[in-house]
Structures are given as structure tokens and as C-alpha cells.
Known about the structure:
Radius of gyration: 23 Å
Largest sheet: 2 strands, antiparallel
Strand content: under 5%
Amino acid sequence: MNLIPAAAEGDFDESDYFKNYPAGDVPHLYPLLVNEGERRIETKPDGAAIRKFALPSLLGILTFLTPVRVDGNWTILMGLIADTGRDLVGAGMPWVVYGLLCVSASGSVYAKTLGPNRFAAGSLFARLFQVAPTWIVLRLTGFIMGTMTMFQLGPEMFWHPITGGTVMNELAVNIVPIFLFAGLLMPFLTDYGLMEFIGTLVKRLFRRLFTLPGRSAIDALASWMSSAPVGVLITVRQYVFGHYTGREAAVIATNFSVVSVPFALLVANTAGIGHRFPEYYLAVVITGVIIAMIMPRIPPLSRFEDKPYDKLHPLREKQSSGDESLIHEAISLAVGRAALAPPLREQMRTASGHILDIWFGLVPAVIAVGGAGLILAEYTPVLGILTAPIVPVLEFFGLPEASAAAPALIAGFLDMFLPALLAANIDAEITRFVIGVISVTQLIYMSEVGILMIKCEIPLRFSHLLIIFLLRTLIGLPIVMAFARFVVY
């Protein structure tokens, strides 16, 4: 998913630099004016400059990071807007998803048939539909499975409510409005200095604990309060603009792209532990922080190179100079970033292209991978066979109903909601608690976030995600089991 194309190699020249960007997708003057991350505002910011940083950033905070209570449930404003948009469309929402599948598949086949030379390089059509063969297969598979589900064609296992019906009518219909409104509103969170402000204040702590820049704290908050895909999108954007290296982007995406608090509550309720949600989410936070401290220091993440995406214009986080207060430094950097923000109209035009790219690329992959995973779990003994060696280990640690718990512990790699569905049939509350917490802290689930990570510019491959998923499970399991024994028993 090419959010921002890379700059050309060689000597820097402004005109050459902009030639490398499609119309409407230029990263504007930001990399130019910051002079590879070295630019600092040396004069005291005036009121107008501070307002340009503060007002849009406040809107970003209110939209993505502020919990609101609606009908007795906690959510965020962006989630509320997305839910409202979905509810307004109502029963027509699956048809919207199906329409996206049709356009994605037909556009990709059309582009492949005509060949790459028929469309201008960097044009919107080329970006959306000239994709690698693997993604063409995923788009066609998603279209076929979507067609079978919408019209209940073929074997029931493909369109049953627990398989195709789940990914089409529950997962996809939520993804489409989330990415629409997140894509349109995200600039207020990322382009007006909020990440520079927060990142400067916590950079020492995040470097020490997680080997990461302080601005990654915003990624974590955005995920916790909105959704994991939103966190990944923010990480991709920051990586492409030069704020993160490949290693940092991979660490952030695979350790801080946590599902939102509302979705975690949905998982807890589905697993039958909603009455223990405070203890449940405390376990999620504690386990997630411990894993995030360990994972960057061990392979495969420790072996990623600290190279920026754009080698010409890296915007690295600077060490504090010591001659100014941390809060003054934070305000200076934030105001400087806000001054470089492009016009809102141009931001919306660029965001629209990104949204279409995600819709046509991610939604079919979610249908294909998520549907296949649910079919695998519900109609085959594969998960039971693969997890048979885990059962004695779980029994050794005294986890009740170990044979039923084992498949749920690895099913999350296919779809994050699948472990909760499997856990709902387990009687032992402590086992349901362990599965519920582990499913949220594993983070890597291919039906949504995994596909997005592979498709974007971050240097993560399927093999990386599989290893990271297994390591997160192995590290988190004893922590969660110890916590569960203390809380549940």
C-alpha cells in the first residue's frame, strides 16, 4: 500500500524531489523545510502559531483519544461517527462491501489485461489496481467468497453465518466506515504537531523501556482508543515521512497496535468474562507492556535495520540540548510541525486516495483470509492437530479444559475474534479469562492487521508475523496464567 512514494536517490533538488510524487500525493514541504530533521524553531512561537498547533491537535485528541459514554458503553468520537455512518446505511452496508469487492476485482483484472504501460505511472488508477499477482488472487478470492455469501451459493461452509457471514456482515461492514473516517480525520492527529509534542515529553521513557521514539506513544493511544488498524496506519504514515526507521516501525506495528477498548470489551463479553472487565483489561495492559519491553530486544525484531524509508530526508527524533526546558522544546517542535501542515483541502484529497487504496486492497483480503480461517477452524480438525503438543503444557500448568483451550490460543493468528468464539463454549472461567487476554495481546491476526502490515511499506513479511505471533503467545501465556490465578481464583 504505497501511502507515499519514496524520493529519488542522488543530490537533493526541490524540483526533482516533487517529480517523484503523483499529483495529490506530495508530502508537501515538510521534508524540505525540516532539513532532514535538523530544523528547530529558535524564536518564541507567537499566539497564532500556537493556535495552529493547538486547535487541530485538540480536535485530533477529541476524535481519537477521548473516551465517551454512549448508551452505557464506552467508545471514542471517531468510533461513534463510524458506527453512526454504518447504522445510517443499515441493511445496505453489506451491499456497499460487495460493491467494493466487485470494483476491486474487476479493476484489477482490467488493469492486468491491458498491461502496465496503458496507465500513467503514479496515477490513481495505477495505484489502486496495478497490483502484484498475489494481491490479484486475494481480490478475486474475496470477490468470489463475497458473492457466495451474499447470494448463498455453493457449499454452506463458505456462506454460513459463522464463516462467510461473520467476515462479510460483521467484520467488513465495520472496517469500511472505520477506515473512511479514520483516513479523513487522521491528519488532525498526525500533521499539526501533537506527535512532536507528546513524543518530546516521553521520549526518554520510551527509549529506555521500548527502544522507541517518544512519538510512538501516540500510536499506542490511538490503537487503544480507536482500533488496531488505525494505529498501524499512523505508524506507516510516520515511517514513510521519515520519523521512524524500519526497525522502529516494525516494533511499533507489532507491539502497540492493540485493539480498542470497546473491541476488547466485545471480546470479553463474547468469551463470557465481561463481568471481570476491569481485571481483564488490567491483565491486557500489564501483559502487553511486558511483552513490548522484551520483543524489541530479541529476534526477529532486533535484527531489523535502523534505516529510514526515505534515505534523503529522515526526520529523526533529536536528543534534548539541555539548554531549554522539555516543555519549551515540545512546544517549539509542535508549532514548527503545524506551520508545515498542507492546506486542509489538499489533505482531504490525498486521504481520499489512501482510503480507496485500503478499501480495494484490504477489504477483499479480509474476506478471503478471514473466511478461510473460520472455515479451517469450524469445519476441519487442523487446529486441533496443530495444537496437540500444547495440551500437555497447559495441563502441566493446571489450566482446566486444556484440549479445548489449545486451538483457541493459536486461532487468533487467523482472526482476532475467533478465540473468543471458541472460548465461549468452555466452562472453566479461568480458561476463558486466559484465552480472552491472550487473544488481545497476541496482536498479529491475519484477517485484518496482518494483511495490512504485509501490504504496507513497513518491512514485515509473513514469516516475521508468524514468528512474532508465536513469541508473543509464549511470553504472554505464563504472565496471563499467573494473573488469572490471582484474580479468578
